[in-house]
């Protein structure tokens, strides 16, 4: 598993009646692959995993694996409250042909240091799939500390970290402590260029769902040392990237997908599509971005 490059956390597409829209889903996947992304992540927050049935998660994963057919890795996110459920999905992911896992700490229960490490080790030891730990204390209230990562080095298949602490210096802190033992992927769109400059290996991206070419261009330009060219795109991109750090990021990004022609705005309850002044505000941000969209 090569945990480097741009990994879209893709949205799950629905029809207006709430059923899965696999045709539109694969239209978006085509746009991601054409732009040159390095992997696809299913079942994250943007994927609305918490409102998908077990059968829908299985359908989404198996059909995505079949459709992509080895072009890039397919990574399944695991966000569970029970260790046994996390292990179930790790085993199921392997069975369905996923290439790797993104793994959150235990959900709902605020686990302590020993419990978090034990949880991660239990899942890692149940599979040989490579794992990226998702470290997002802002949204999920559990900080995976450097001391925890020290203990997790015992699990060879824990290979990467989705860095969403909002602390840019954490990239340097982790590199100083662990060298290349863990690959670091930025998980916050509005900090992506900054963390890539500081040595992050990849970008788990959100607005890539609507703007794949621009996202890949920023990543590639930074890695080529072409900072001024990257910065020109990134400054244009920032008002759009800020849609990723709002509680309604799913609705905002899906509206952006609809306006760029590679998605629909339909979400599943309890989320509701945008209306009124909020909708006008977000539409205007997206439309301004489209009017000034750079050629990449």
TrEMBL record:
Gene3D superfamilies: Aldolase class I (3.20.20.70). PANTHER family: DIHYDRODIPICOLINATE SYNTHASE. It comes from the Bacteria. InterPro entries: Aldolase_TIM, DapA-like. Pfam families: DHDPS. Keywords: Lyase. This is Dihydrodipicolinate synthase family protein. The keyword Repeat does not apply. Belongs to the DapA family. Signal peptide: none annotated. The lineage of its organism: Bacteria, Pseudomonadati, Bacteroidota, Cytophagia, Cytophagales.
């Amino acid at each position: 598993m090569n945990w480097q490059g741009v990994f879209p956390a893709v949205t799950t597409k629905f029809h207006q009646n709430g059923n899965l829209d696999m045709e539109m889903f694969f239209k978006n996947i085509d746009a991601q692959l054409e732009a040159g992304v390095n992997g696809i992540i299913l079942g994250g927050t943007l994927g609305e995993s918490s409102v998908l049935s077990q059968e829908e998660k299985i359908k989404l994963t198996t059909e995505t694996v079949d459709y992509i057919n080895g072009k890039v890795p397919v990574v399944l996110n695991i966000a569970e409250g029970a260790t046994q459920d996390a292990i179930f999905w790790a085993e199921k992911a392997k069975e369905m042909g996923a290439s790797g896992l993104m793994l959150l700490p235990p959900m709902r229960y605020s686990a302590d240091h020993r419990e978090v490490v034990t949880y991660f080790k239990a899942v890692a030891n149940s599979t040989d799939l490579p794992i990226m730990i998702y470290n997002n204390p802002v949204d999920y209230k559990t900080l995976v500390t450097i001391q925890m990562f020290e203990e997790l080095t015992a699990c060879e298949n824990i290979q990467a970290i989705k860095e969403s602490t909002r602390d840019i210096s954490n990239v340097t802190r982790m590199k100083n402590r662990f060298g290349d033992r863990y690959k670091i992927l930025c998980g916050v769109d509005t900090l992506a260029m900054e963390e890539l400059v500081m040595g992050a290996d990849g970008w788990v991206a959100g607005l890539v769902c609507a703007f794949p070419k621009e996202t890949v261009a920023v990543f590639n330009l930074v890695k080529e040392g072409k900072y001024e060219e990257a910065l020109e795109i990134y400054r244009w991109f920032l008002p759009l990237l800020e849609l990723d750090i709002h509680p309604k990021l799913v609705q905002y990004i899906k509206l952006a997908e609809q306006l760029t022609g590679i998605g629909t705005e339909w979400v599943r309850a309890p989320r509701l599509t945008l209306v009124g002044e909020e909708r006008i505000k977000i539409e205007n941000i997206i439309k301004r971005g489209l009017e000034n969209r750079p050629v990449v």
